[in-house]
Amino acid sequence: MVRIWRAGTVTAIVALVAAGLSGCSAQVGTPVPGEIDVRTLEVGDFPVDKFSYPADASGDGPILEGIRMSEAVVTTDRIDPSLKFGRGSKVLPDPATAIDFLANVSEPVLKHRKMVVGYAASGADQGDPEGETRPEADATAITVVALRFPDTSAATGAARELEDADIGVSRDNRRLKSAKYPDALVHWRPGVANVGAFLAEDEFVISLFVQRPKADSADLVSWVDKTLTAQLAQLGRFRPTPTADIADLQVDPENLLSRVVVADRKGQAPDPDTFAVYGPNYLINSADDQPARARLLDESGFESTAYADGNSVARVRDPAGAPILMDGFIESAGEAYDDRPAPTDIPGAKCLELNTTGDPQHQYRFRCFVPYKRYVGVVSSDDEAEIQQKTAAQYALLANSL
User: Fold this and answer.
1) Element containing residue 295 per DSSP (H, E)
2) Is pLDDT above 50 for 22?
3) How far does Cα 255 stand from its chain's mean position?
């Protein structure tokens, strides 16, 4: 299942923002034979003309690299098939954010070693208890963090210093050794069923936190080993942007963000939650069934998805994959949503409405899906009139952009 939450909560598809809009806006474009004339659609004040955002990152290069790093961190189901419950993922733009996944005493190390950016992902073999953000005590749960540093020397020094800082938090902590990865720095507290580890790899530091049901040091080290095996393979497939080129990363090089409906195009800047383009791992990391989500993305030919102001557009390899992806998204919405009639003038659109089992404080009332050629747009709102406008605007924008 994929939970559909309001803005500010990590989700597998998108955290959806409503903007109270009314009225009409001028439309552009000409009808293509076999398609509707989008100039006749009621799109409210949402801009739907073809558009491109400025390419310059304007100092946000590290954030863009952090978003790219979502593909540098392994999803937990690839560590072990039992770890199918995604617990979310996050860009770590600075040391202050990174210590949410490390000991607080790590922040001076990250600053001293000039951490560039990081990415964290977590998963478990069971879902977190309802309303809780921590796994059950009898769960196996793993958090993997990749931290980027300016060069190999900085990463090597950071790994050593992070381990020293972490182990120094308690006099009861003890070092462990991995025969498979002798350069890994591993420690635990005897009697406590978790283990921490650091490993420098090129300009990265991999940080692990592994929780198991029982406090067995040999068992914990075996899970460190299998996690490092999967993570190093994933990192090996990732091509980091050279440090000197990070500042020149483009905001929207494939014009995917520009195809997402927003109320106002001005002032948009790279943001991991509200203005970003991600590959498949981001969607897998928050799925309650990671293998099922991975199969959906593979079967649909999913390539990437863009999030802007709470709406989203996903791109697939060819038009045949769009309805597959859309139907998969709808199926994963969960029992809190029921089907509702979609606007009849939007070809292929499908909509959902929150039922009485849902949480209106955290979930939007309406959600609509708009397929167009190789694209699937997703829009949400609490207002019935607005969801009609957003759905029409998303279709018109896609038509005018291609």
Assistant:
1) helix 290-300
2) no
3) 19
